[in-house]
Structures are given as structure tokens and as C-alpha cells.
Amino acid sequence: LVLFSIMHEKEIGEKHGRKALRWVLRQTAQSVDNVLRRVDMFGRWNSGKFLLILPVAEKSLLNDIFRRIERALRKADFGVVPDVCIELRWSCWQAGESAESLIARTQAKHVMLSLSPGDAENVVPMIKSL
Fold this sequence. Notes:
Layout: E1 2-6, H1 9-16, H2 18-33, E2 41-46, E3 49-53, H3 59-75, E4 86-90, H4 99-107, E5 113-115
Antiparallel strand pairs: 1-3, 1-4, 2-3, 4-5
Helix pairs in contact: 1-2, 2-3
């Protein structure tokens, strides 16, 4: 399970307007959707948040998917919003775990990826263990 969010969504809407915010959300969704496998499930989770389910994903595949997401988001055209920051958190489902528990555990995780202006390229840490 991967949860990622557009940070400071409210401020983006206030500073650049709702139309610009909708553009950022749409560009984020399209950028990520374009780099996923057919078996992956992706959608909006909440305001400014997205949920990604990656079935049958081993750690080398997760690293590859995270790198593809990173590259796609760095290339995205966010229009008049130059300072989009996206945070990503992930967890692997554990046998017997409920969806609610998995989501809560994922939300409590440290940020795995932060894309913001000035960040160095290739900030995705390698996933060492599941």
C-alpha cells in the first residue's frame, strides 16, 4: 500500500486558486497512472491524497515503481504552481491484517519520498526489507 499526498494543498488553493489546485491534482494523477502496471490500483483517497495498491510487488519492483513515480512527478507540468511538494509513505500488508490497520500503519510511517523545489534528483531511498 502506498499513500501519497500533495502537501500544503489548502495553501495552493488559496494562493493560486481552485482551478490551479485541480490542475495539480489532475497532473499528479495522470503522471502516476502513466507509469503503473496493469495490475496496480490507483485513485484519490481524500482531498489531496492518493492511494496506490501494488499487488505482488517485491522490493526490487517497489524500488523501480518508486523511481518511475519520482521521474514522472518531476517531469509533470504543475502550471502556475512551482512549489508542489509530494510526500509518499508505504507499507506491506501483513497476513491477517485488516485494511484499516494497514492504512493506519502506513499513515504513521516516516516519509519515504519528498519531492519539492530544490530537492536533489533521485531522492528515493532503496527499500532494504519488507
